[in-house]
User: What shape does this take?
Amino acid sequence: MVAGVDVPVARGRCRFCAVTVGTGDSCCFCCRTVAAGLGRPLVPVTAAAFFRAGDGVHRMLRRYKDAPVADVRSYYAERAARRLATLAGAEGRIRPRQGRPAWDVVVTVPSTRPHARCAVDALVDRVPALAAERSSLLERGPGRLDHLVASPDGFRAVAAAGRWRGERVLVVDDVYTTGARAQSAAAALRAAGLVPVGIAVVGHLIGPTGAHRTGVRAA
Ligand SMILES: [Zn+2]
Assistant: This one.
């Protein structure tokens, strides 16, 4: 459903990322850990698809970035962009139904690999409903970011973000694993005065056993 606003919380689902959680839990282990790292509640995330390592969505999300042949990268980028477009556009799953867009600006999560091109920008730019509002407002900050390690200063807003103070921002990424990167990005935008209304991702990775991601606490 909708990122950020009017999100019905289904029973048995994490209230932030919608993975299955155990009876009595409202939040999965990953979200709980990332929220603790950031010191605040998380921004709701909406995925076009849940996927597992090695499945078709996983192959698509790897090959659009890493395939050695440009035509292959382009083919998978188009498929990934269609997933994102479905989430963002015609069906109104992120766009609200009463005219006003749910966000004022779209910001992608920068790559944490040095010198890496931000591949998700190319996906967003293929989706008219998102591309028109995309603005590059984040850069890598000094804080540590890693699997399950979120940091309020893992990213920081660039000076140009000042003009968006008080405006609603949709954070977009290709893959969501634990949420450490995307939620840190949202936290940095909030610190700069923007209002994160949601995180939209193409794919949300579900672990092979699902143990830590489904809220079943490991021993
Ligand atoms: Zn969660």
